[in-house]
Write a structure and sequence with these properties.
By secondary structure, the chain is mainly β. It is built from 8 helices and 31 strands. The radius of gyration is 23 Å and the shape is globular. Keywords: Secreted, Signal. It is found in: Secreted.
């Protein structure tokens, strides 16, 4: 059932909505921002940027990003994306609260806004775990084309099917490398290179095909103190290391990557080491959680040579704390575990819980560190939306059916609860579930109604989002991959287009922003990695152009005076405003 707020009605029309909300178990809500409440006229979602050819990007020679970490220049105040740089929003539109923004301490009154939910209990009552074809643990190095049942689909073949088209955009398209006043370019590469022991070793690996520079694509990133961790999943042949580090500050803007922990961990075929890492998460206990898919060559001849494994490293010693291999009944025929987040409560490091997303078989793994055990859950909200599976990026038109991908955890709220916000990659919607509903398999299976859609679609078209992350103040940052931009949302407000802001946008620097993470500094920064992934997958990557970038922005400065600012008072909208974008 879809609940609608009725404008201009009395209390009688409001009571059913309030009763429904209380039955859902979410006891605390932020102030309503429905159709009768305040919304932002100026920060509507922008239209897609002009389409550019993936083979025609400018080099970083004209980079003018000002980074105070290197030149000590003052960070400029954020300017809304729809206005020229000299535009100053009217006081009638933007008002700031008198109190100062929240600092390092988490807001004790934090409560995410989960209004405009649309539960459908009848749909939720069905058996959600419809996939029963677990991988054979006795033959984990399966054939790249396994025998499928009549009702099964080889997801890897469908994902990278040749049914894509490329029509180079008109040359009149406007190119802009500048991503915004809050965004600073940290690093960029045309191709990836590594710190080899010697030039002879490097040349030998190139000669043998073990290292093919143009096949190496950075996908995930994490930040800890003076290190940036970067993952290079073995999508193609010629990737010698799947996890590496670079310094957070360096005068070399295209540094070579140093394999982590060292080269010994990256021997292909050794399942005790690292095989194909997609993403990582650093917890508050200074541990690096590494999600290794165990799957290689997925763009050509997919092969599961090792079982998916979660590795946990001590960042002070770089020693392995634990390696947990997922049980065979939690690995589906075409599973691809691609994202991970970790929850630690009250500093109790031994009772951490990790959540890993299966993007191709639409499931979520919940791993209990204390009990060293896991379980898998499925929900139809993890599935891709068939109406949102068409992508277009700079003239490259393709279809992906990616399921659960973006997962982010809120700070602890007023009820000592955390909320997981999540979305499939091929979807324009955001969803949520309280972590209490995921504490064990029985709780998850008995509470399917706790999984709820949040607000409205983030965009009318091309609203695909990859990664997302939430800072200590409850502000979400997320990548809009088909809009060349990074958006934000204050989770206290309703999830509607008018409450979504844009912190960075560039049809050169932010072509397919793939991963996004918050660092762990007192004044947090948001870090973004853009990598032109579709061009890489479909053979349109130009190794003579800059293809990979890492950008950073101060979380506070990026949202200052925008609808994402926790101290921002949302003004009323005009009655004729079209809520779709």
């Amino acid at each position: 059932m879809i609940f609608r707020a009725v404008m201009g009605t009395g209390m009688a029309s409001v009571m059913p909505w309030l009763v429904t909300m209380s039955l859902l178990g979410f006891r605390e809500f932020a102030e309503s921002s429905g159709p009768t409440a305040h919304i932002s006229q100026e920060l509507e979602a922008p239209p897609p940027l002009p389409q550019l050819s993936p083979l025609d990007f400018v080099s970083p020679s004209s980079v003018s990003f000002n980074d105070p970490a290197f030149d000590n220049e003052e960070t400029p105040v954020h300017v809304d994306c729809d206005f020229p740089s000299n535009h100053k929003p009217s006081n009638a539109i933007i008002h700031r609260a008198k109190e100062k923004p929240h600092g390092f301490q988490i807001d004790p009154n934090f409560a995410p806004n989960l209004q405009s939910l649309q539960p459908d209990n009848k749909k939720n009552e069905r058996n959600l775990d419809s996939f029963q074809n677990g991988a054979n643990s006795n033959n984990i190095a399966q054939s790249s084309k396994p025998n499928l049942q009549p009702n099964q689909v080889n997801q890897s073949e469908r994902f990278f099917a040749p049914g894509h088209t490329f029509k180079p955009p008109k040359e009149s398209g406007f190119k802009d490398e500048y991503a915004g006043p809050a965004m600073h370019l940290a690093y960029y590469w045309k191709t990836i290179d590594y710190e080899f022991d010697s030039d002879e070793d490097r040349n030998s690996l190139i000669y043998s095909g073990t290292f093919i520079p143009e096949n190496n694509l950075p996908l995930g990133l994490e930040i800890w103190k003076d290190k940036i961790f970067v993952s290079m999943p073995r999508w193609k042949k010629g990737i010698p290391a799947t996890l590496a580090t670079i310094p957070t500050k360096s005068h070399d803007k295209s540094p070579k990557l140093k394999p982590y922990p060292d080269w010994r961990w990256h021997h292909l075929g050794n399942c005790q080491g690292l095989t194909s890492v997609f993403r990582m998460q650093i917890d508050e206990c200074d541990r690096l959680w590494v999600l290794d898919s165990g799957k290689i060559d997925i763009t050509d001849d997919p092969l599961q040579i090792c079982p998916p494994t979660i590795f946990v490293f001590d960042l002070y010693t770089d020693e392995l704390i634990r390696a947990y291999t997922l049980p065979h009944d939690q690995i589906k025929e075409d599973s691809l575990y691609s994202n991970i987040v970790v929850d630690v409560r009250n500093g109790d490091c031994d009772r951490a819980v990790a959540y890993a997303a299966d993007v191709w078989r639409f499931g979520l793994i919940v791993y209990d560190f204390h009990n060293d055990s896991s379980f898998r859950i499925q929900h139809h909200y993890f599935f891709p939306d068939p109406l949102s599976s068409r992508y277009n990026l700079h003239g490259l038109d393709f279809h992906w059916t990616d399921g659960l991908f973006g997962i982010a955890l809120t700070p602890v709220d007023v009820n000592n609860e955390k909320t997981m916000f999540f979305h499939p990659m091929s979807s324009f919607r955001e969803f949520a579930v309280p972590l209490s509903a995921l504490r064990d398999k029985k709780a998850a299976e008995d509470s399917p109604e706790k999984f709820v859609p949040v607000g409205k679609p983030r965009a009318k078209d091309y609203g695909h989002s990859s990664g997302s992350t939430i800072d200590r103040n409850g502000v979400m940052f997320f990548n809009m991959v088909t809009r060349d931009s990074v958006w934000c949302w204050d989770t206290r407000k309703e999830y509607i287009p008018q409450n979504l802001g844009v912190i960075g946008s560039s049809n050169v620097s932010l072509v397919f922003p793939n991963d996004i993470r918050m660092d762990h500094e007192e004044d947090q920064n948001v870090w973004i990695l853009s990598n032109k992934l579709p061009m890489y997958l479909y053979g349109y990557m130009n190794k003579d152009e800059v293809n990979f970038r890492i950008l950073r922005a101060s979380a506070k400065e990026a949202v200052r005076n925008t609808v994402c600012d926790p101290n921002y008072i949302v003004p009323e909208s005009l009655p004729s405003y079209d809520v779709t974008c």
